Amino acid sequence: MSDIGKALVVDDSSVNRQLLVRRLEKLGLDVLQAENGAEGLAVLAANPGVIDVVLLDVVMPELDGYQTLAAMKANDSMRHIPVLVVSSVEELDSVVRCIELGATDYLTKPINPSILAARIDASLAAKRLHDLEQESLERQRALNRTIQRQKEELSRFLSPQVAALVSSPEGEQLLAGHRREITVAFCDLRGFTAFAEQAEPEILIGVLAEYHRMMGGAITEHGGTLEHFAGDGVMVFFNDPVAQDDHVERAVRMAVTMRTRFAELASVWHHRGYELGFGVGIAVGFATLGRIGYDGRHDYGAIGNVTILASRLSSQAQAGQILLSPRAQLMIEGLVESESVGELTLKGLRQPVLASNVVALR
Amino acid sequence: MPDAEAPVLDEAVLIELKETTGDDPAFVRDLVETYLADVPIQLGGIEAAIAANDAEALIRPAHTLKSSSAAVGAMRLSDVSRTLEMAGRSGTLDASAPDNAKAARAEWQSVEAAFSAWMAGEGRA
Asked: B2 in a domain, yes or no?
């Protein structure tokens, strides 16, 4: 047994075979032998992935060197094995033909031991390189499968845009924090606290699941980035991490879709005796976005007055109202039918805010 | 035709063979024995091809005898085998082919005698 490699000698001449085997063994190779091409192919097939170099005679019975080469090159598991053609000096034409058929190199008989050693070294190096490439390809494939699986797992926990961002090349930079104008929509339920106090936990979970499923569908349809679910409260923002020129319009359309679908849910709940209403607050402004949290637990979040404003508007909204901040109203004018709800005094804000309710889309 | 200048057995080839295969006299002896057992088979093939006037069938035994003879230093037998191989490759066998086959058979007797002497002397060393 040896470490440097395994060779296969295919030659019908017993003298040549015996001599070549001996020379290869002297170079430190393990050697297998075959008396003709057909036998050589059988040895190759019986030892998959084992043989590092084939020394092939041209003139042989059964299957000659050309046919053997052609068969090897047509076989996926043999194609990459280096083949050294062994021929006499008069046969240089056949050497050319063998190289064209895919042979690596040739040796002339009688074989010069130094040239044999050099050709074997080159062939083994080529084979090792090929094997390394295969290993590296296989590792790359395994890595890609892992990354794909991780992406799929991530997208169950994160909004799809954030999952894509995490695994994108510019992800780290965006996660580190950046400032951008966004539209924030904050939604929550009227009457939820009272409902939660009375309802059985199973019913509460069931109602929340129906509500979240409906909300999730609308968020995805409009390309919103879900920041978080907190009980009945849902915060969604637009224009980040994916840029959206129409971010205000998207937020308003999403809120109107949610309001319509919520009405269907609410009527079912009403028949069961649960009274729940839906309110939304929408604001536009600059926020700092990125990774928020501490080691081991981070969220992709938005921080800024705009999120506070959207949240306060949402808490002021009556059941069925979608309240817009003045700037959001200004940017969406013409696309919606709205009514002023007057100046609202919002917790934590010094100035009262002139808000309007979205009645319908135009 | 065999080159009259070339020796029946070029012992320098055998010496080099021994030196380049690990200085193991037993290996060289084994190789020579393999050769001595193989020559009659190849000569038989040559003679059968010529009797059948089959140029194609002449190529392989002549080719094998040419290279194995050269490997062990039987240079004149290698040369006459090369001439036969070329005749086979030419596609038609003229009157020289049977003559060369006879010459090969005659040379074989000299080769066998030379190796017997070598085996008794140097080959045992």
From this structure: no
Interface mutation target, options A10, A11, A12, A15, chain B, most CBs of B under 10 Å: A15
Burial class (CB in 10 A: 0-12, 13-18, 19+), A147: exposed
The ipTM estimated for the assembled molecules is 0.87
> Any idea which residue has 């240089």 for tokens?
A92
Strands A6-10 and A53-57: parallel
pLDDT, tens digit, 9 for 90 and up, residues A32-57: 999 999 999 999 999 998 999 999 99
CATH code where residue A20 lies: 3.40.50.2300
Does some domain include residue A161? no
The conformation of residue A82, written as its DSSP 8-state character, comes to -
The residue among B29, B67, B72, B75 with the most chain A CBs within 10 A of its CB, best to mutate, is: B67
Residue type, A127: K
Pairing of strands A178-190, A53-57: unpaired
- Residue B3 Rama label (left phi>0; alpha psi -120 to 50; beta): beta
Please state the length of chain B.
Answer: 125
Same domain, A187 and A237: yes
Q: Which residue, among A118, A238, B12, has the nearest Cα to A105 in the 3D structure?
A: A118
Structure tokens at A170: 């510019």
Record: contact B31-A110, CB cut-off 8 A: no
Q: Please report the pLDDT score of residue A198 as a whole number.
A: 85
Contact A348, A312 (CB under 8 A): yes
Q: Kindly report whether the peptide bond that precedes residue A241 is cis, defined as omega within 30 degrees of 0.
A: yes
* pLDDT tens digits along B7-31: 899 989 999 889 888 888 899 999 9
As a whole number of angstroms, the distance between CA A61 and CA B32 comes to: 23
- Identify the pLDDT of residue A1: 46
pLDDT for A69-82, tens place per residue?
999 999 999 999 99
DSSP string, A3-62: SS-EEEEE-S-HHHHHHHHHHHHHTT-EEEEESSHHHHHHHHHHSTTT--EEEEESS-SS
Interchain contact B35–A (C-beta under 8 A): yes
Q: Which chain B residues are within 8 Å of A110, Cβ to Cβ? A: 13, 67, 70-71
Query: Residue B29 sits in which domain range?
Result: 23-119
- Is A109 within 8 Å of A88 (Cβ atoms)? yes
CA dist A204 to A157, A196, A201, A229, A358, Å?
Answer: 22, 6, 5, 15, 29
| Other CB atoms within 10 Å distance of the CB of residue B16 | 14
CA pair distance A222, A323, nearest whole angstrom: 18
State phi, psi for A334 to the nearest 5 degrees. 95, -30
Length of chain A: 362
Number of domains in chain A: 2
Q: How far apart are the first and last CA of chain B?
A: 34
